[in-house]
Amino acid sequence: MMEIRILGAHNIETKNTGCVCILIDDILAVDAGALTANLSIIQQQNLKAILLTHQHYDHIRDIPALGMNFFLFEKAIELYTTRTVYEALLTHLLNDSLYPNFIEKPQEKPSIHFNMIEPGRTAIIAGYEVLPVSVNHTVPTIGYQIASRDGKKIFISSDTGPGLDDCWKQISPEMLLIETTLLNKNEDFAHESGHLTAALLQQELISFRKIKGYLPKVVLTHMNPLVEKDIKAEISKVEKALNMKIRFGYEGMRINI
Ligand SMILES: [Zn+2]
Ligand SMILES: [Zn+2]
Description:
The protein is of the alpha/beta class. Helix content is about 30%, strand content about 25%. It has eight helices and 14 strands. α7 packs parallel to α8. It starts with a strand and ends with a strand. The protein binds zinc ion (2 copies). The site of one zinc ion has 4 residues, from loops.
């Protein structure tokens, strides 16, 4: 059993939408786009680890806030990400100019404890078997396959453009949380910016089925809320073409698998 709770399902923050942030069983967070505003002090203290997919601001924005909170809680939060993201955080945010360097402070027990992950190398994190897999975005980006103790597997793609065959070969999730940011008419921009449209998602799901022999359950994230209604119309065509149901993630959504 695994409970997936979506705290942020979109690519921008407004009163009704939060940036991407997914919480597993209240203890493991993937990305920090909408973490602190949605969790009480106790809930934040109960977090065991945070996995970051890439350095874009909509995915890491609450890391400085969380660093301050854990500093005040006098506790440390385990952060898992690539060296690239770690260096971006140290250079641009936790640089003692914009905000304190909670990755190195306080010296005896830094408030954020960095753990390096590498694509293709499985790690046990907060009791889950986590497999980081590279996806296709404008900066190096990792999707995470997360397996519970009873063997349930999900894959969280993060931001990605098309061309995921290599990724599909490495994973076997029951559920895919994948992005669909743009409308079909913006396909050129999707290639350029490393994102998916409904039509591009359809192609990726077709290659998933070809490679794996099945289709996982699909939940969409990272929608642009300004065009979400139109994305829904385009996704309904994908549902028909593939004879499957595709769910849209939303803030506060809970899924049990
Ligand atoms: Zn991004
Ligand atoms: Zn993003």
